[in-house]
Amino acid sequence: MNSILHGANTCTSKKQASQLIVELGKSISNPQRQTLANLYIAVDTANSLLKELEQAHQIIRECMHEMNDKQILEVAKLNQNNNLSSLWTFRTHQRHKLIERAQRVLFGAGHVEG
Would the pTM of this model clear 0.85, i.e. be above it? Predict the structure, then answer.
């Protein structure tokens, strides 16, 4: 198990979880094995959610770039009326920081895409 944890810089979280399941195999209880399996599923789901968030982030940025000030104001009003954030600039920054954090957690400290 130490080899898996010390190799964390070169492995993704998903691969580490898979290796733990294989390496620990029969030496852990069924509930512990199920917990590891659940962690693997959670990491796999997080990977999918990150990809979706990255794509949505790019689409929103492209839409905002193509909109004029009046259009942006209208969407901000709609967002406010629907109890959504009307502060796009801040949401874009927050979303970008969340993407970076997820990339570091899922792929390692050195991995952050532009």
Answer: no
pLDDT tens per residue across span 28-75: 898 988 888 898 899 999 999 999 999 999 998 899 899 999 998 888
Which of 36, 15, 34, 3 lies closest to 106, judged by CA?
A: 15
Quote the CA–CA distance of 13 and 5 in Å, as a whole number.
10
CA atoms within a 13 Å half-sphere pointing along the CA-CB vector of 3:
4
- Pick from 47, 7, 45: nearest CA to 23: 7
Report how far residue 98's alpha carbon sits from residue 3's, in angstroms, rounded to the nearest whole number: 30
